[in-house]
Here is the input.
Amino acid sequence: MVPGPGPGPAAGPPPPAPHTHPAGGGGARSLTAGRPAALRPPPRPGRHSAPAMAGLGQGCAGKAPLLVKIVMAGESCVGKTSIVRRYTEPGSPPAGAPTSSYLATIGIDFKVKPVTFNGTRVKLQIWDTAGQERFHTLSTSYFRGAQGFVLVYDITNLDSFRSITSWMKDIHEKAGDEVDVILLGNKCDKESERVVPKQKGEKLAWEHGIPFFETSAKDNVNIEDAFSVLTKEILEKKSCVLYDLDVVALNESKKRTCCAF
Ligand SMILES: Nc1nc2c(ncn2[C@@H]2O[C@H](COP(=O)(O)OP(=O)(O)OP(=O)(O)O)[C@@H](O)[C@H]2O)c(=O)[nH]1
Here is the structure.
């Protein structure tokens, strides 16, 4: 659906042996540095190297939560909404259940997920974009200002995998080269319908220098871990991202009142 070729493969060693990620924790809200790492490829050329985790949140203690904008991207029907629901509303009915009917996202939606990372409060603002071609301009207009992207394809849909390179191009055009992206091959519960081998997903992620997971929104496989790894990557790169603007505004107005008298 998306025009144009993406950036060429980055030079680097061949992909490592397939790595199985453990299932997501299902509802745990604390992200820890000891999380199982996703397949960790070398950084893309031109990216900043990540500072040590020990420095994360220094100078942020006691302040408003950090606000992190994450955008879901990928073709229609790959499971973006289901992944967001699974992560932000653990009690919601699972995707892909026999009774669940597909409702295309119209335009844009977002959910907030508060998490604690190494003692630092973080508000993940997760924007769920519509994958349908007719919403493409609208969806990609929300890419600007995002710190992280969850780029999703469906392991039972070859076209959705082929389009990933174009989505990567859109992301870097709209959000810059410094954003963190994670690649998910969703619907891994449908093994009998698989058309995209896991190694292909791993190789593509390696070429783009981004972490990779196969996930199932239906069976809650690797959803929590995928968001944990992405959040960790974002926060490692910046000692402080942004504070939640509402809280900052409140504090600012309090300060002004205080100073006026
Ligand atoms: N078996 C299975 N089905 C899934 C999974 N994730 C999503 N689905 C189903 O796939 C269909 C599409 O899921 P959505 O989450 O709406 O897909 P989307 O990417 O948000 O689609 P758009 O809103 O059009 O962009 C629905 O019928 C879901 O129930 C999964 O992990 N496994």
The CA atoms of residues 31 and 117 lie 5 Å apart. The radius of gyration is 18 Å. The first strand starts at residue 30 and ends at 31.
